[in-house]
């Protein structure tokens, strides 16, 4: 079963959690689109 969900992260820690989940093969990140100004905050 494959489902695709589009989400907007409001916290940089959430991105870290998603990457950890990807390493555990629980999810697959299809695309990352982060603004540099957001990352520098």
**Strands, count:** 0
- Summed up, the helix count is 2
**Biggest sheet record:** none
Number of separate structural domains: 1
Poorly predicted regions are none
Order of helices and strands: HH
Given the C-alpha coordinates, what overall shape results? globular
Distance from first to last alpha carbon: 37 Å
Structure explained in plain terms:
This protein has helices spanning 12-23, 36-39. The radius of gyration is 11 Å and the shape is globular. By secondary structure, the protein is mostly helical. It has two helices and no strands.
In short:
By secondary structure, this protein is mainly alpha-helical.
Key attributes of the depicted protein:
single chain, 41 residues, mainly alpha, globular
SSE layout:
Layout: H1 12-23, H2 36-39
């Amino acid at each position: 079963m494959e489902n695709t969900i589009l989400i907007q992260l409001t916290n940089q820690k959430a991105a870290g959690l998603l990457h950890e989940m990807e390493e555990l093969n629980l999810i697959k990140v299809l695309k990352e689109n982060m603004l540099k100004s957001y990352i520098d905050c």
